[in-house]
Design brief:
The chain is α/β, with parallel strands linked by helices. The chain has one domain (3-82, 122-179). The chain has helices spanning 32-40, 58-70, 88-95, 125-139, 142-149, 159-179, and strands spanning 3-6, 22-23, 26-27, 44-51, 75-80. Strands 1-4-5 form a three-stranded parallel β-sheet. Helix 2 links the parallel strand 4 (44-51) and strand 5 (75-80). The longest helix has 21 residues, at 159-179.
Length: 184
Amino acid sequence: MRITFIRPHITARRATDALEPLVFGILAKLTPPDLEILRDYGMQTWAAFTIGHDYDTPASIQRTLDFALENKFTFAAFNTLLPYPNTALYRKLEAEGRLLYDGKWWLHEDYRYNQAAFRPALMTPDELTQFSYHARKTFNSIGSIFSRVWDFKTNLRNPYRLGVYLVYNPIFRNETLKKQGVRL
């Protein structure tokens, strides 16, 4: 099976900016034409987006979702940025007084899966939580799964690729809906 994992970096400016993904462990810059080349070679692509950076807004999250849908990624994750202890991000947010849950979201009884654990720069924590979930839920909706399957270059390239698509997308859909708001 050949699935390319990419970690796009999409700014608040445009969802078509160059991507900085990890492709088979190699950091590269990909543009939409590069993604088309991957599709031409039949690569099923798993894109992982981190949402909640200082430049993110509700509109940029929507553009990120639109970008994922337009490119018919086989799989996509829309992960809420989490400040893990002893990281540069954690120290920055701590110094700026932006950490929530007493700075220990992983231990706090009120923290729930996929919730914002800090105050984002350009939206509220509730907006970050809401828009991140909207992106996950929309990308993994039955309508989206159905529309993305019709990619003859990747998901319908052969019966095996179709099988991978049809087996794993419902699993990701169920996980998306089941995990949201669950206590750690």
